[in-house]
Amino acid sequence: MKVAAPPIVIAIDGGSSCGKSTLAKALAKQLDYTYIDTGAMYRAVTLFFLRNGIPIDDPTAIEHALNGIDIHFAAVKGENHTFLNGRDVSQDIRSMEVAGKVSEVAALPQVRHFLVAQQRRIGSSCGVVMDGRDIGTVVFPHAALKVFLQANLDIRARRRHLELQQQGTKVTFEEVLSNLSQRDQIDSGRSMSPLKPATDAVIIDTTDLDIQEMLDLVLGLAKQTLNAQMLPQ
């Protein structure tokens, strides 16, 4: 006889606009797991820094600012929303202004230590689907399932441009393409927690996949992982 497998951590990493967040949300819903959008956490810190004029080359100012930041997630009409110091900033953190600075802020050691500690605390108590850039390599290196998404840069830029247009943000395709390219360089080239697949991650190219195809593929991997952890009694 087998017993139910314990809840696991599923880490989904990859560059911007590869489909990480959309996939992670859908996967968490299917498994009845908690979804944690780590990218939103870094964007929220970036938004706070921008609005409060925090210089990213001043360690003392950064430390003081982090002590005044509280980030949490809550469901609003069935959707996962990000709150910064009690205010819903779900739309604000998706602006091009934040997008243009988030990789620089995310590369700061103090910011990474601050948010990684929070991410580990959340993920240690329940079944979690967490997406980001270093979940499988740094935040949860022992995650039961690690997935790394990648996709053609041009396709990613088109996806992101369409998303921004649907949100009413006026930006050209060229601006989005340039932003994603720059973020890739910063994320992959930083010395601390660079964007790269874990050695035991399943690498999936999403260039020609829609969300349902991605979900079916990763849901299958999750079920295999859970079945493997079920022990005979």
Which terms summarize this structure?
233 residues; alpha/beta; Rossmann fold
What does this structure look like?
Helix 1 (20-31) packs across helix 10 and helix 8 packs across helix 9. This protein has 233 residues and is an alpha/beta fold. It has a single domain (9-224), classed as P-loop containing nucleotide triphosphate hydrolases (Rossmann fold, 3-Layer(aba) Sandwich). The model has no long low-confidence stretch (mean pLDDT 91). It has ten helices and eight strands.
- The total number of structural domains is 1
Query: What is the straight-line distance between the termini?
Result: 5 Å
Shape: globular
Q: C-alpha Rg, in Å?
A: 18 Å
Structural class: alpha/beta
CATH superfamily: P-loop containing nucleotide triphosphate hydrolases
Mean pLDDT: 91
